Amino acid sequence: MLIGSTLLTAIGLTSSVHAWGGLGHKTLANVALQFLTEDTLTGVEAVLAADGHKKTPHPSIVDIATWADDWAHSKGGAFSKEFHYIDAQDDPPFECNVDLDRDCSGEGGCVVKAIANYTRQLINPSRNINDTADALKFLVHFIGDITQPLHAESKARGGNDIHVTWQGHRGKNLHGVWDTDIITALAGEDDKTNRDQWTETIVDEIKNGNYKDLVPEWLSCTDVNDALNCALRWAIDSNSFICSYVLKTDPAGRELSGTYYRGAAPIVQEQIAKGGVRLAVWLNQLFGSGEAGRLPTPAKRLVVQDRAL
Fold first, then answer.
1. What digits encode the pLDDT tens for the residues 90-124?
2. Which residues form the signal peptide (predicted)?
3. Quick check: 96 and 240 in contact, CB under 8 A?
4. Per the count of CB atoms within 10 A, which of 96, 101, 135, 283 is most buried?
5. How many domains does the chain have?
6. Residue 75 belongs to a domain with what CATH number?
7. Strands, DSSP E only, in the chain?
8. Model pTM score
9. Do 239 and 88 form a contact (C-beta atoms < 8 A)?
10. What is the DSSP letter of 95?
């Protein structure tokens, strides 16, 4: 079940490590893939193909979009768990804000500083290709994570401790509903067909639909040389949805697959679109001749992500 312009209107358009689940992260990367220039695509694919830890011969950014989640749960990657979110110590639903000094002061860092750090590592790449590949894989994932509103909120551990019901099933938590359940209801299970169909829907909205006039604002801070400030602005943007929708009314104990879902689904899709175009512009600067704020429109290439399989 896909949401396009008509259906979005009909349904109401008038801290865990995981964010967006598999389908969300892969679709966000696939959206970005549609806007990569040829020189960027060549550079990105060369780094990923040279990665000594790759699982397929020629992976794309879609294939590695969830790598950082798996790595965070490994013995060697435990250090990166805190890089997936920023715990805004605000007061929703009365006040939502992000303060870098207040909310990212620990030794482990947060998603804002992680995006800035791994961006710097790609501006000045390591001689060790595996380190460069890891920086790219982290960046692809974290630009996805930062668009999930509950990855920019500390209350109830980013919603993990808010127990809700979804389609009659108790034992769900709010964070998981935003990561996975809303996306599954919106676009289906995590498979190639649903990923490509949802990507096409989102890309059409970006080029010709509801998102076209929003793109300039989404890209208003996308200069890789100002990465810390831009990532902070992205976190503030995501956090704003906590007060305006996610926790505007207390969801604890409620069934969320009805009215709540119908209001949340357009937000989720727009955030996936937003993250996709930001990732594309970011990578076009790091690996090609792209410019901040400029979204090119290369030829359609939905099949790229699976040619390694």
1. 999 999 999 999 999 876 799 999 999 999 999 99
2. 1-19
3. yes
4. 283
5. 1
6. 1.10.575.10
7. 163-166, 169-173
8. 0.91
9. yes
10. B
